[in-house]
C-alpha cells in the first residue's frame, strides 16, 4: 500500500473522534475501530462485544480475526466502497475505507453483529477456519455471549454503514481543507522572512509581490474547492462500473470531460458507457455534465464574490460567453441576474 500524503493522526483530533466513535457505536449497535492506511489502530475499540473480546484474547483464534480485518480492509480499498462480509465465526463485519482525493488514509472497521435469519443476503466469508475439538470447546464457553450479539436487519446495517461513511469522509475532508488553508496562510505570513536583510531592490520587491500573489491565488483556489466540495454530494452510482467516471468528474471540476475518456477510465467501450450512463442518470453524458457544472456555478455565485468570468474559468468553460449562454439555458437568466436575485431573496 502506497503511503498517503495525509496522516489521520495529524489531521484530525483523535480524542474527539474517539468520543464521536463511542456515540456512533451506541447509536448503531456496532463495535467500531479506526485504523490507518497500514491497518494499525489509531483509536481504541469502541464497545467490543464480549464474544469478540473472548475470541481475540485467545492466541489461536485471534490470528483468524487479524486475517479477517486485513482481508476486509484490502477488499474495501480494492472496491473503493464499504465492504460487508462474514468473519470466521459467520459474524457480520464491515470495512469502510477513508479515501480522499484518491488517497487511502485508513478505514473504519465496524460490526460484531448478526443478521436476522430471514434477512441474510449472500455475503462472503473472507477467512475460513477448520473446525477442531479445542475450538468447539472455546466456542461453547462463549456461546452465551455469541447469542447476545446485536441483531440487525440488512437494511439497518447498510444505513449505518452509509452514515459512518458520509460522516467520516466529511470530517476528514474538512480537516484537510483547514490544514491546507492554514499552511497557505503561514506561507503568506513568512514570505517576507525569505527576503535579504539588506534594503530590497526593485527586482526583489517585484519577486516578493509576485510570490504573495501566487500564494493568495493558491489560498483562493483552496477556498473555492472547499465551497464546491461542501455544496454537492458525490454521485454514488447504482452501477459500480460507472463510479470511476463520477469520482473523476467530481474531483476535477475545473476540467472538461469527454465521453470517450470517461469510458476508457471505466474500462468499457464508449457506446456501452453512453448506454448505461443514460440509464443511470436519466440524461446523456454531455447534458449531465453541463447541468452539474451549472449547479456548481450557482454555489460559487451564492457563496463568493468571484466575477462571472472567474466562475467560468474555475469550472472549465472555454469562455465566459459560452458559460453565460449555458447558464441561461438551464436557469432562464444570466449568472449576474441569478446572483442579484439570490442576494435579494436572502438579504445578503
From TrEMBL:
Record keyword Transcription present: yes
Gene3D superfamilies, sorted: Homeodomain-like
Domain HTH araC/xylS-type: 243-341
Keyword hit for Lyase: no
Signal sequence interval, chain numbering: none
InterPro entries: Homeodomain-like_sf, HTH_AraC, HTH_AraC-typ_CS, PocR_dom
SMART domains named among the record's database cross-references: HTH_ARAC (SM00342)
Keyword entries, A-Z: DNA-binding, Transcription, Transcription regulation
PROSITE patterns in UniProt: HTH_ARAC_FAMILY_1, HTH_ARAC_FAMILY_2
Stored PANTHER family: ARAC-FAMILY TRANSCRIPTIONAL REGULATOR, HTH-TYPE TRANSCRIPTIONAL REGULATOR EXSA
Protein name: AraC family transcriptional regulator
Organism: Paenibacillus aceti
Amino acid at each position: 500500500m502506497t503511503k498517503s500524503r495525509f496522516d489521520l493522526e495529524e489531521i484530525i483530533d483523535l480524542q474527539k473522534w474517539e468520543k464521536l466513535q463511542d456515540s456512533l457505536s451506541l447509536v448503531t449497535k456496532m463495535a467500531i475501530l479506526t485504523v490507518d492506511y497500514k491497518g494499525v489502530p489509531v483509536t481504541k475499540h469502541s464497545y467490543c462485544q464480549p464474544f469478540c473480546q473472548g475470541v481475540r484474547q485467545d492466541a489461536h483464534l485471534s490470528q483468524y480475526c487479524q486475517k479477517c480485518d486485513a482481508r476486509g480492509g484490502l477488499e474495501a480499498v480494492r472496491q473503493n466502497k464499504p465492504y460487508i462480509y462474514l468473519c470466521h465465526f459467520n459474524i457480520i463485519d464491515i470495512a469502510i475505507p477513508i479515501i480522499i482525493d484518491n488517497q487511502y488514509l485508513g478505514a473504519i472497521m465496524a460490526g460484531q453483529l448478526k443478521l436476522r435469519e430471514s434477512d441474510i443476503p449472500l455475503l462472503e466469508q473472507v477467512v475460513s477456519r477448520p473446525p477442531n475439538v479445542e475450538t468447539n470447546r472455546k466456542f461453547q464457553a462463549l456461546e452465551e455471549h455469541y447469542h447476545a450479539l446485536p441483531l440487525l436487519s440488512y437494511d439497518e446495517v447498510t444505513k449505518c454503514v452509509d452514515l459512518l461513511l458520509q460522516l467520516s469522509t466529511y470530517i476528514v475532508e474538512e480537516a484537510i481543507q483547514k490544514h491546507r488553508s492554514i499552511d497557505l496562510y503561514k506561507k503568506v505570513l513568512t514570505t517576507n522572512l525569505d527576503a535579504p536583510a539588506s534594503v530590497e531592490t526593485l527586482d526583489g520587491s517585484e519577486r516578493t509581490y509576485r510570490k504573495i500573489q501566487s500564494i493568495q491565488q493558491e489560498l483562493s483556489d483552496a477556498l473555492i474547492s472547499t465551497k464546491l466540495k461542501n455544496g454537492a454530494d458525490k454521485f454514488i452510482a447504482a452501477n459500480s462500473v460507472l463510479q470511476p467516471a463520477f469520482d473523476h468528474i467530481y474531483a476535477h471540476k475545473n476540467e472538461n470531460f469527454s465521453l470517450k475518456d470517461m469510458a476508457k477510465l471505466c474500462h468499457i467501450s464508449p457506446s456501452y458507457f453512453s448506454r448505461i450512463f443514460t440509464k443511470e442518470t436519466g440524461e446523456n453524458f454531455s447534458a449531465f455534465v453541463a447541468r452539474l457544472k451549472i449547479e456548481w456555478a450557482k454555489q460559487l455565485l451564492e457563496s463568493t464574490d468571484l466575477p462571472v468570468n472567474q466562475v467560468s474559468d474555475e469550472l472549465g468553460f472555454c469562455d465566459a460567453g459560452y458559460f453565460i449562454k449555458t447558464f441561461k439555458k438551464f436557469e432562464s437568466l444570466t449568472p449576474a441576474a441569478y446572483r442579484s436575485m439570490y442576494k435579494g431573496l436572502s438579504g445578503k
